[in-house]
Amino acid sequence: MIRGYAVVTRSPEDTRILGASLAPLLVPGDVVSLSGDLGAGKTVFVQGLAAALGIHGQVTSPTFTIVHQYEGQRYPIVHVDVYRLNSFQEVIDLGFEELIDPGAILVVEWGDAVAPLLPSRYLEVDIRRGQASPDDEREVSFCPHGPRWARKLEGMRPVAEALLDAASERSVGPRFVNLADVAPRDDVATNQPPAEG
Ligand code: ADP
Ligand code: MG
After folding, report:
1. Ligand 1 lining (C-beta closer than 6 Å)
2. How would you classify the pairing of strands 138-145 and 5-9?
3. Alpha carbons 184 and 179: distance in angstroms, whole number
4. Which atom of ligand 1 is nearest to the CA of 83?
């Protein structure tokens, strides 16, 4: 079982490409949780994902409205931002559990804050500013919770590599780093997902 991958992006466009690469692998019922500080690039990632799912309207952070719903070409997408919610109770009162809809793809900004309310199988995407260049560099890590997400990540990886390579001026070689190969960071979840039954 892979622990996940880390990728460094050097522009918002690269982060959109990562979101877009994930899009073809998503099916209704899938849950993607995004974590990272304000301004990390969670919404930018969702913009890439949404565009690749055929959502052409403006995708913005649902920070004040909490929930945005988009009609993708194939599936509905529910985009939630729980930043403004102060307590679990507020998140539950919002009807969060009903948002986990087998007929839609759910994307949650600040999903780490509501991790206990997420299903046992989901994709965790963590975005943080790069240390060398905090303005334009981001370290995006993908952690699968459940073997199916691990397989989806394996499918996404070559697509993302190819698209990132095509978008860059010069080839920089593979960008995905296996998280098992990097020193563990104490602030990244390393829980092994439960066996799929
Ligand atoms: P969040 O939703 O995490 O609060 P946003 O996606 O709204 O953050 O904003 C990310 C900001 O960071 C945008 O202004 C974007 O232009 C900027 N940015 C700079 N470099 C990157 C990068 N490599 N990836 C994503 N966003 C980046
Ligand atoms: Mg946002």
Report:
1. 9-12, 14-15, 36, 38-44, 61, 109, 136-138
2. antiparallel
3. 8
4. 4
